[in-house]
Amino acid sequence: MKLPVRDMPVPGESFPGYLLRLAHFNGRFRSGEILKLAGLRDNHSNRQPSLKGLEAVCEKLAPLLLVSKEQLAAHFTEQLSEPWLYDEKRVIRDIQLRQPRVCPECFSESDEPIFKQDWQLLPVTHCSKHNAPLVERCPGCQKPLEWHYSIFEGCKHCGLEWSQLHPRMNQGLPQWQLAYISNLKSPECMKVFLRELATNIVRTARPNDVIHEDISRFPESCRDLQSLISDAFDCGPGDKEYGPKGFVSPRRLKHSDTINYHCGYKEIARVLNIPEGEVAYLASKGLVNIIHETPVLKDTLFDIRSSHQLLENIPKAECPPEGYVNFTPSSTLLDRYATSYGRVLASALDSSVTVYRSCDDLSMVFIEEESLNRTLRTELMKISGGSVTDMEARKILAISRKEMAIMIMNRQILRCSHSIHDLTGDSILEHFKL
Ligand SMILES: [Zn+2]
Ligand SMILES: [Zn+2]
Questions:
Q1: What is the 115 CA–ligand 2 centroid distance (Å)?
Q2: Tens digits of per-residue pLDDT, 235-255?
Q3: What is the distance between the terminal CA atoms of the chain, rounded to a whole angstrom?
C-alpha cells in the first residue's frame, strides 16, 4: 500500500498539520483516514505523537510514503525534543495544544499552506510573520476550527474562505510571545517562564475556585486562549469563568453544583489553623463536609463553606470563662492521653461540650475543665484491649526509657503476644496516673 501523493513534511511543519495535508492531497477529509490506512488507531497520541511515540507512528506511516521511518521521523525529532514541551511539575504539563489554529494571511498567501509547529504551542498566540493573532474560531460564524481538510481554504461550516478576509494590520507580537521567544535561548529560563504562565492561566480561567488542579494540557474545547493568556500574563483578575470541563478533574465535574467550593484538607486546615492531619477527625464526626470521599485524606474533597460554618457555630470568648482552660494543638495533655487535638475537639463538639474559640480560628480554644478531662479519659480508654508502641507508652506514663525497661522486666507492663515492639494497652492503663 502506498499513497498516490507522497509529499514529505516541510521544515517547521507540525505533525498533525502534515497528517492533515497528506489526507487532503490524497482526497481524504480527515487525518484519521491516513492513520487507518497505515494500520494505526485514530486517536490523539497518533495524530499528535510525543517524541516517545513518534517512531512507532512513523514506522507504520513511512511505507505509505515509500521512505524509511528514520527519514520521516527526522523531520519532527528536533521540534519534539524541546525539554520544556512536557513538564511533570507544571500546572499544565503538556503545552502543545490539540485544537487547530491558523493564520488566515499565511494560508491565503500560499498555494500550499502548512501548519507551523509553533502554532501548536501555548504561549504562541500570534503569527510571527504577520504579527497578527492566530485564529481559533471562524471569523465569520464563530464556530471552532476543526482538523478537516477544508481548513486549508476556509471554514467548513459557513464556507468563508481565508482569501476573502481583509489582511489584518500588523499589530506587533504580544508581551508573552516576546518573552517566549527570548526564553528560547535557555531551556532553564523557559521552564520557569512556562511554569508561571501555566499557573496564572489556570487561576485566571477559574477565578472563583478555591483549588486549582494540575491538568495534562490546555482544554481542547477552550477557544479563547488569546484573551485568557492576556489576562493571565497581566495577572489581571479573571472576570470570566472558563470550563469547568478540561480545567478541573473529572471527579470534581461530578459535583458541579458546588464546584467553586471544592477544596482539599489543606485548605480546611488553613482556615481553621489546625495541623493538617487533624482535619480527618473533624470530618469523621461530620463537623466539616465531605463532597467526595476517598480512603486517602489527600484525595478527599471538602466543602470550604463548612469550615467557615464550623467557626460560626463556635462562640468566641476573649478569655477563658470561669472553670474553662486553654487548649491548643501543642497541649502536653495530648501525649499523656494518647490522642490528638482534632480527636479531642471533634469528640467535644460532637458531644455538645461547650467550646469557645479565643480567636478567628481554632488554633486555641477554651474548654470546661471537667469536660476536657472526661473527653481525654474517654480517648485514653481507647487503648484498652489494644496495643501501643514503646514511645506512646513512655509518653502516656511520662517515664524514661530506662524506667520503662525496668517495668517491662518486672512484668508490670506487658509486651503484646503478637509483637515484640508493642505493649498491651491494658497494662499501660493500670499504671496511668497524672
Ligand atoms: Zn501569518
Ligand atoms: Zn464559518
A1: 19
A2: 666 678 998 999 999 999 999
A3: 87
Residue 306 lies in a domain: yes
Nearest ligand to the C-alpha atom of residue 134: 1
| Predicted confidence (pLDDT) per residue in 37-59, tens digit | 999 999 999 999 999 999 999 99
One domain, residues 307 and 260? yes
* Shared domain check, 410 and 358: no
Expressed in angstroms and rounded, the spacing between residue 51 Cα and the centre of ligand 1 is 26
Task: Grade residue 1 by pLDDT with cuts at 50, 70 and 90.
Answer: confident
| Ligand in nearest proximity to the CA of 115 | 1
CA–centroid distance, residue 161 to ligand 2 (Å): 9
Q: How close is the Cα of 312 to the center of ligand 2, in Å?
A: 54
Q: Which ligand is nearest to the CA of 138?
A: 2
Mean pLDDT of 76-97: 96
Q: Are residues 236 and 283 in the same domain?
A: no
Which ligand places an atom closest to the C-alpha of 151? 2
Among 313, 335, 354, the domain-final residue is 313
The CA 230 to ligand 1 mean position distance, Å, reads 20
Domains: count for the chain? 5
Nearest by Cα to 19 from 2, 42, 1? 42
Residue 236: the pLDDT is 64
**Do 243 and 262 belong together in one domain?**
no
Residue 132, domain member (yes or no)? no
Residue 39 zone, left/alpha/beta (φ > 0; ψ -120 to 50; rest): left
Count the neighbouring beta carbons within 10 Å of the beta carbon of residue 97: 21
**CA separation for the pair 337, 225 (Å, rounded):** 56
pLDDT digits (tens, 9 = 90+) for 360-383: 999 999 999 999 999 999 999 999
Do 226 and 213 reside in the same domain of the chain? yes
If DSSP codes are grouped into helix, strand and coil, which group holds residue 16?
helix
Q: What is the pLDDT of residues 187-198, one digit of tens each?
A: 999 999 999 999
Q: Does residue 330 carry a pLDDT above 70? A: yes
Whether residue 137 is contained in a domain is answered as no
Residues 202 and 228 in one domain: yes
pTM, to two decimals = 0.84
Average of pLDDT values for 86-91?
Answer: 96
- Separation of CA 25 and ligand 1 centre (Å): 22
Q: How far is the CA of 171 from the centre of ligand 1 (A)?
A: 12
**Ligand 2 centroid distance, CA of 116 (Å):** 22
User: Kindly report the CA angle at 149 between 145 and 153, in degrees rounded to 5?
Assistant: 75
Give the whole-angstrom CA distance, residue 404 versus residue 431. Answer: 11
What is the whole-number distance in angstroms between the Cα of residue 42 and the centre of ligand 1? Answer: 29
Per the structure, the complete domain to which residue 396 belongs is given by 387-431
